[in-house]
Amino acid sequence: MSAPWEGLRAGFAMCGSFCTFEKALSAMRRLREMGADIVPILSERACSTDTRFGAAEDWRARAEALCGRPAIHTLKGAEPIGPKALLDILIVAPCTGNTLGKLSGGVTDTCVTMACKAHTRNGRPLVLAVSTNDGLGVSAKSIGELLTRRGVYFVPFGQDDPAGKPRSLAADLERLPETAEHALRGEQIQPILIDFLRTL
Fold this sequence. Notes:
Layout lengths: L8 E6 L6 H13 L3 E6 L1 H5 L7 H12 L7 H4 L10 E7 L1 H9 L5 H10 L5 E7 L7 H8 L4 E3 L2 E2 L10 E3 L4 H9 L11 H4 L1
Parallel strand pairs: 1-2, 1-3, 3-4, 4-5
Antiparallel strand pairs: 4-7, 6-7
Helix pairs in contact: 1-3, 5-7
């Protein structure tokens, strides 16, 4: 399957599931190699929190180097995405339980949720790559709500550690480009639910 990636304007937003950042940057790199023009968006938490997975400044620098432009990381920076119709598609990867809850409830108090609100007002696709330890807990209702939203599409996801973290869900970021191609056609890639154990 191929898509007209050359010149496609794609927003790529990263939220604070820090353990997923390496895979997210790999997906970002693949989209760049396919010709997409990517606008990096880092949540305030992602942009400022050092963790055992790496320094915030290093993650930001890598995303900016991959995309060849500064990252959006403030509400003020994200707001023009809507009025100026800056993006053809917006991807949130990783999309945390916190962000899922805010998106399902219409809360726009971070640069990522503001970017999503601004982008979707133009009727363009929003792709979510779930990464949350409570996906089968309190975040389940947020996922259910967003599954019913027109213009919102999910990267296939499943239980990444059923024994150790039975409520945890994670998207298969290897399938992000394919998911985005379907979303650009107004389709949800299927199946949405995957069995990680069978893919190992």
